[in-house]
Amino acid sequence: MRQKNFGALLLVLFLVAALALTGCQQAGEPAGEADEVAGEAREADVVVIGGGGAGLAAAVSAAENGAEVILLEKMTMLGGNTIRSGGYYNAVDPERQEPLGIEDSIDHHYQQTIEGGDNEGDPALVRILVENALDALHWLEDYGMEFTDKVVAIQGAMWERSHVPAESGGYGYIQTLEKAARDLGVEILLETKAEKLLTDEEGRVVGVKATGADGEELEFRARNGVVLASGGFGANVEMRVKYDPRLTESFPTTNHPGATGDGILMAQELEAGVTGMEHIQLLPLADPKSGSSQHKVVTEIQSTIMVNREGKRFVNEDNRRDVLSAAIMEQTDGICFVINDAREAPEYNNYGEKVEDLVEQGYVYKADTLEELAEIAGIDAEALVQTVKEFNEAVAKQSDSFGRKVWGNTIEVGPFYATPRCPSIHHTMGGLTINTETQVLKTDGTVIPGLYAAGEVTGGIHGTNRLGGNALADIIVFGRIAGRNAAQGL
Question: pTM of the predicted model, to two decimals?
Fold first, then answer.
């Protein structure tokens, strides 16, 4: 069964990515075989910079629209942050939601996204996101991506509209889009780092200077347009400290090592505008040992609670990610414990990791009773028992003093689990300023002709805080738009 072996596969892929920045070589094939790179200038209709979800979506979309496409990826593998993600995709989907008794609407998704970002997101961009999320999901399905019938609320999502892929984590997105890209004739070049955007005498972006795996200088000319999809800057300590001095190297990150803001910096050389750069999101529930979003029992929040070492709840678990992170950092040791019972414990988590292995490795605590669980996890036992009792009573009433809105099962069937978690740098909401056609704008608001952007390299969509599950919808929706418009030379 693919799911069972996926955790090991992801680990291998992540190690390959980490080695790329140090110049080390990894035995075996990377995810995505590289096309041969020659030293002379190449030409295509569209050049895409970045091989994560947004870049691959843009490449496929451009190719669908008849363009000859070259995609450049600086790492040894495709995937970016998408392949590290939990895979949850937000979309209003009556076909899946209504049988589960979930009431939702596009306006509700819009309002939660706007308010979740403190009204600092661009309303026009947010409207495009929420109105096109389901169509983009169906587009993925048309290329073979599979989703289960589950629709859940993950941490920071604020509602039950997060779709669950059949493949573990974000792997299915990359696998699906890479196959589609290759089938459509997209040329994919790995270990090829974009260095500089090229312009003509009128200021139109017409190509890219890059460096190949052996340090050779390369040039790629774009007849119609260049798409920047190179990701955010969560792994660039100097850059993130510039915008938020608190986020020093002592902070862990869930990001892959290539998330260094290259595309933003290249575009700024052309006077591109940026927005919201100071808004850097912490994932509230990351692993304290590694900073990773992996190594847990469950992501869905419906039937779980968060407690501190004192055994008490301290926040509404279905709140915004920034609120959750701030609340956790105020607790003893800056950590919390996610508590769930046996009914919510799958054999394999959404990353394909076997839960029993995580228990043996010390990432997760497990015990037959709450008292035993508290003892081995270092939580106040008496308080934990009382907290769970009060939570179970609240489940029956669908109401509690924290104002929780998302409810599932009680916590009363052993064995019980406690997963320690802490905040980790996760998503940079700020980035390049774009319009509704994904054209990159200068600081004066005028268009940089020939330059498009999609994904975490852009800003203006999520405001001060991104809802959990909105990122994957974002990269596919806007990746498709960027690819189409670049192909047409808008």
Answer: 0.85
